[in-house]
Amino acid sequence: MQQKNYFYYVILLLIPPAVVLKSRFVTRDNLYMIVPLAIAYLCYFFCLMLVLQIIYSSVRNKKQKDFFVCSYTYDTKTCTFWLDGINGELAVLFISNPFKLQYIPVSDIDSVSVSVDYELGHKKDRAYASRINIVMQIKGKRYKIPIAIGASKYMIIRMAGNGKLILEEAEKFVDILLNVKEEKRKARLLQETGKYD
Which of the residues 28, 63, 70, 155 could staple to 151 if both were Cys, CB 3.0 to 4.6 A apart? Predict the structure, then answer.
């Protein structure tokens, strides 16, 4: 599972400096052009993030592959999960890799859980969190997928308010995913041995 595709970001972020260097726009004689170019680069960066958000939204709203029967959708700020309870497959799309919709058989998922990274100074009372994550182990490899992130030291997640709702939704998704995994395991066992566990 690939959460980030750095190739897209590196290429897109290096285009403006490459154009400026190739055109020899900034020389010793016109160093004053650095400030407008820096502002233009920041505008380009924010437009790029907006375009990636639009691409993510359009891919998210598209139909999944054929024979994928979506029985549950879990949408977060950083990714979207679709669960096919009939065929036993999980589809995931990350905002940091918006061009690739990834499919994972639930039989490949070894474990899944919800973890909370509590803010320093609040670990005992657990009142504030810096991140809420879904932790998956797929074919022996561990993935920590952030589903809610506090923006800074002063913008943290209150566990009594919004954090509690995010945590409950994440736990519900994990329970549904584990139930589908168990049903598929029992169906496979019944098919192989003829006995239902």
Answer: 155
How far apart, in Å, do the first and last CA atoms of the chain sit? 31
List, for residues 102-121, the tens digit of each pLDDT value. Answer: 999 999 999 999 998 876 65
For the CA atoms of 118, 139, 89, 117, the dihedral, rounded to the nearest 10 degrees, stands at 0
Q: What angle do CA 84, 86, 88 make, to 5 degrees?
A: 60
Q: Is 68 helix (H, G, I), strand (E, B) or coil?
A: coil
| CA–CA distance, 82 with 72 (Å, rounded to integer) | 6
Give CA–CA dist 157/59, Å, rounded.
28
The residue type at 120: L
pTM for this predicted structure: 0.76
Tallying the residues shown for the chain, one arrives at 197
Which residues, at least 6 apart from 81, have a Cβ–Cβ distance to it below 8 Å? 73, 74, 75, 90, 91, 92, 173
Pair of tokens at residue 124: 């005992």
Q: What is the mean pLDDT of residues 74-93?
A: 91
